[in-house]
Amino acid sequence: MLEIHDNDISILKDKKCLILFYFTAAWCGPCQKIKPMIRKLSDGLDTAKCEVYIVDIDENDELALELKVKAVPTFYLFYEKNLIDSCSGADILKVHKLIKDNLPKLEKEIIID
Fold it and tell me: Is 87 a catalytic residue?
């Protein structure tokens, strides 16, 4: 799992894979509870298809404001700079479904290209 620092999301412009932003905070109990599960999920993903980035809302407050993050944990899924899906809450099954439901879109795009 990679980290976003200084509100810098320039990584979005060069990636041809799904990008999952995990918005979290050190003071958030549910965020800390789900973090090991997100880390394990991230470790099991093919980085050519999906990368996971942790975004601390206190360290990246401008980004959280810009993307209108209203609660933590929140998960935003991007593809080619576009927000394509999201979910919130400390439910690993929802996060897994978020990725699983959107991988076919990526695979269809790769086949068409």
Answer: no
- Local confidence band at 112 (pLDDT 50, 70, 90 cut-offs): very low
SS3 95: helix
Rounded Cα distance between 69 and 24, Å, is: 10
pLDDT at 45 over 60: yes
Q: Decide: 105 and 112 in contact? Cβ < 8 Å.
A: no
Which listed residue (17, 31, 50, 87) is catalytic? 31
CB 22 within 8 A of CB 53: yes
**28 catalytic per annotation:** yes
> Which domains are present in the chain?
2-112 (3.40.30.10)
